[in-house]
């Protein structure tokens, strides 16, 4: 059976996120291997995440901000979602029309509700991507060609999967992948390090869950 991977979904829903998503999207589309609360069998298949330095890292749990990345799915279930997104008669067709009704201009693309609209020679591409601790996801569809793609990876190493998806869907160039950066030394959870940078500037580094470091914040 396919490994599971974290999936970011667009709407931030407070309270009863999982029953609402299941009633309106998952059950009507037959996405029975997608959920927030995993069964023991699903936990056994859950892919182990790796951080930007290719080190093992735990999956994030987001009980409060479920809309920011609490949903887990499989490639098979996401194909069902994309097929429904392309079908004007599917249960989510009214929601798709609403999401694309009034797109706004943004640098290099247009933005709908939860979708980015990218112009391409073969037709507009609708896309959405994201990631959590050790996972990256990306999906794109092209209504004119009736083609779609979803990419799931259990790694935060960059470049992730967006370039691969757009290359396969529309022939976009692939990003150049270099060597994975050396990881900084791990420190104990909750430690705080303050040091002086060149030029007399002070940088404060907070180290959080399992010793993974947050980006440095410079302070004059």
Explain the overall architecture:
The chain is α+β, with helices and mostly antiparallel strands and 220 residues long. The chain folds into two domains: 5-170, Beta-lactamase (3-Layer(aba) Sandwich); 187-220, no CATH class. 21% of the residues lie in helices and 25% in strands. It contains five helices and 13 strands. It has helices at residues 17-29, 40-45, 75-86, 93-99, 162-170, and strands at residues 5-7, 49-50, 56-57, 71-73, 104-106, 109-111, 116-118, 125-132, 135-142, 147-153, 192-196, 202-206, 217-219. The strands form four sheets. It has a six-stranded antiparallel β-sheet with strand order 5-6-7-8-9-10, sandwiched between helices. Strands 11-12-13 form a three-stranded antiparallel β-sheet, with no helix packed on it. The radius of gyration is 20 Å and the shape is globular. It starts with a strand and ends with a strand. 25% of the residues are buried. The model is unreliable at 1-15, 193-198, 202-209 and 213-220 (pLDDT under 50).
Describe the structure concisely.
By secondary structure, the protein is α+β, with helices and mostly antiparallel strands.
Rounded to the nearest angstrom, the distance between the terminal CA atoms is: 53 Å
The number of distinct structural domains comes to 2
Largest sheet descriptor: 6 strands, antiparallel
Strand order of the largest sheet: 5-6-7-8-9-10
Count of β-strands? 13
The CATH H-level superfamily of the largest domain is: DD-peptidase/beta-lactamase superfamily
User: C-alpha Rg, in Å?
Assistant: 20 Å
β-strand percent reads 25-35%
Quick one: overall form? globular
The poorly predicted ranges are 1-15, 193-198, 202-209, 213-220
Element order: H for helix, E for strand: EHHEEEHHEEEEEEHEEE
Oligomer: single chain
Q: Helices and strands: which structural class?
A: alpha+beta
Helix content: 10-25%
| CATH topology-level fold name of the largest domain | Beta-lactamase
């Amino acid at each position: 059976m396919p490994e599971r991977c974290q999936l970011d979904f667009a709407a931030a829903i407070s309270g009863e996120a999982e029953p609402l998503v299941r009633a309106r999207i998952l059950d009507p589309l037959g996405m029975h291997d997608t959920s927030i609360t995993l069964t023991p069998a699903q936990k056994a298949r859950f892919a182990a995440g790796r951080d930007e330095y290719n080190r093992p890292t735990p999956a994030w749990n987001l009980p409060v901000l479920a809309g920011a990345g609490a949903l887990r799915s499989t490639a098979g279930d996401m194909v069902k979602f994309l097929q429904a997104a392309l079908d004007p008669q599917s249960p989510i067709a009214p929601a798709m029309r609403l999401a694309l009704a009034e797109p706004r201009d943004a640098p290099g693309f247009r933005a709908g509700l939860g979708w980015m609209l990218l112009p391409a020679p073969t037709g507009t591409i609708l896309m959405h991507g994201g990631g959590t601790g050790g996972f990256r996801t990306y999906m794109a569809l092209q209504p004119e060609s009736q083609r779609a793609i979803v990419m799931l990876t259990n790694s935060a190493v960059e470049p992730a999967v967006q370039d691969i998806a757009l290359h396969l869907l529309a022939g976009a160039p692939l990003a150049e992948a270099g060597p994975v950066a050396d990881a900084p030394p791990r420190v104990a959870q909750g430690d705080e390090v303050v040091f002086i940078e060149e030029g007399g500037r002070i940088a404060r580094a907070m180290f959080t869950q399992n010793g993974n470091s947050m980006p440095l914040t410079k302070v004059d």
